[in-house]
Amino acid sequence: MNSASYEYNRQKNITKLTSENSELDDLLDGGFMPRTLYLLYGQRSVIRQIFLTLSVTAQLPRSLNGLNSQVIYVDGDVSFDPYFISQKSVTKKLNPRHVLSRILISRFFTWEQTVDIVINKMKGLDAQLLLISGLTGMFDPKTQSCFGDLLKILGKLKKFTLEKNAIVVVSTGYAQNSRFKPAGGKIMSHFADVIVHVLDYKNRIEFYRLKGGRFQKNIMWKSTPIPLQRNLNFWLGES
Predict the structure, then answer these.
(1) Is residue 228 included in any domain, yes or no?
(2) Cβ–Cβ under 8 Å, residues 58 and 130
(3) Distance CA 114, CA 215 (A)
(4) 14 burial class (0-12, 13-18, 19+ CB within 10 angstroms)?
(5) Which stretches within 58-95 are classed as H helix?
(6) What is the DSSP code (8-state) at residue 2?
(7) What is the pLDDT of residue 41?
(8) Residue 10 belongs to a domain
(9) Whose CA is closest to 196, among 79, 75, 21?
(10) Under DSSP, is residue 108 helix (H, G, I), strand (E, B) or coil?
(11) How far is CA 174 from the centre of its chain?
(12) For a disulfide at 211, which of 139, 171, 189, 195, Cβ 3.0-4.6 Å?
């Protein structure tokens, strides 16, 4: 049994994976930590960009706060974008083709396929980052067996984080008739180590940490682009 101070220092010295979103990273005490299951839910386009960015930063060397690892990307909501990946790779001085070759992609279109991929198809795969977008997209809360399947999936994902010393990040939509609760009910909320709710507004993005530490809200303000003519007038010295 370790003391609380030992655990604090251990976590403090662990390399955390950056999302390159300073507000989200701050919310997560520096970034995504190994041996942890994260649940992100809410605004899909924001979460999509986070997933794609992580697919690249995970391949950076550890000296640059990466994992130097290949990535498993289970795409349940058609969120994978090779063009974004390529552009992001160039900004990190990585070879886009090499980065794409180290991302193992799988897609599902039914709940049965979702279960099969996580329970059976991931055996033997080695990666320190596993991303599953739209995990509950085919989940039917009216079918009781789906809850049993979800329990098996989340148990498998928790085991993956521990056996591979890996980071697992899943995204979901909202529960039926709710704009606040994630799909998957109490099972999802119980198994996730960290839960982040993402809201997107016209002028800002809000991140709420609902589990995995004290409740915290961070706001990322969207920059307002300067109109082109106004910008030209400034440089020309015209009012």
Answers:
(1) yes
(2) no
(3) 31
(4) middle
(5) 82-91
(6) -
(7) 97
(8) no
(9) 21
(10) coil
(11) 16
(12) 195
